[in-house]
Amino acid sequence: EYNPIFRQSEICLPCHNFTIRGVKAEITFSEWHDVTAGGMVNALSCQSCHMPNLDGHHNHEFVGVDIDLTQDIPEDSLQYKSVEKLLQNSLEIKFEDIIIEPSKLKILISIQSLTAHSLPSGTSFSREAWLETVVKDVDKDSILFSSGTLQDPTSNLDLSDSDLLLYSSNLLDAGGNIIHSVTDAYDIDRKMLPGLKSDEHLYKVDGSFISGTQVNVSSMMHFRAFKPDLLIEELLVRQPVFIMEKIDTTFIIP
Questions:
Q1: Residue 154 in contact with residue 69, Cβ under 8 Å?
Q2: pLDDT by residue (tens digit) across 29-73?
Q3: Alpha-carbon distance 157 to 200, whole Å?
Q4: What share of the chain is helix, strand, coil (3-state, %, to 5)?
C-alpha cells in the first residue's frame, strides 16, 4: 500500500546506517545526509537513483551494485544492465593536463563523484573501485606504463603499486590488522571518494620520449562488488568487473 515515507530517503535509514562499537561500518544514510545537508537537495534522494522514474512510474528493482553470483547473469540481462547503468552514472573522469618533458610524462586525471554518498558505499570494505591507466607507444605497439591492470577478472589488485588509485575501505581489529568480519571490527580505514566531491590523480611516467612518437593514454574506472579473497571460486568466476567510465587520448611527442 502507498505510504508517503516511500518517497523519502529516511525509508532507507534502518538498514543502511550500521555501527558497531562506535565504528561506522556501513553508513550510507549518514554519508547522504551530510552531503545533502539533511536532504535539502531534493533532487538527490535515494529513490532518484535507486528507483528511477520510468515513463511516470518508478522502477521497483531497487537497483544497487550487487549481482546474484549464484547463477550466470549475461551482460544483456536486465539485472546486469541496470547495475551497469547505475555505475556509469556515478562518476566522471577526464584528463586535466598532460605535460611532456624530455624524460618524464605527467598525466593528471580528475575524478568527479555524481552520487550523494561515498564511492564505494554500503559494505565499502568488500568493494573496490579503481583507476586503470595504460600508456602505449602506438608506433611500436608497446606498453610504456600501466597501473591498475588485472591479469584476469578474478585476480587481486597489486596493492604494492604506488601509482594505484583505489577507492575502498578496510575493517581493522583491536590490533589494527585488516579483517573481514564486521562483528570483530574495532576501526575502519576509509579510503573512499566522498559524495559529490572531486579528486585528482597524477601519474609520473619515466622514460625517453622521442620527438615524433605517437602516444596513446587510456584510463578507465573499474568497479567490483567483492574483493576476490572474500568469494569462493564458484562465485568469484561469475563476478563481473564493471567499467564505470573510460577515456583515452592520442598525441604526438613534439
A1: no
A2: 999 999 988 777 666 889 989 988 877 777 888 899 999 999 999
A3: 20
A4: 20, 40, 40
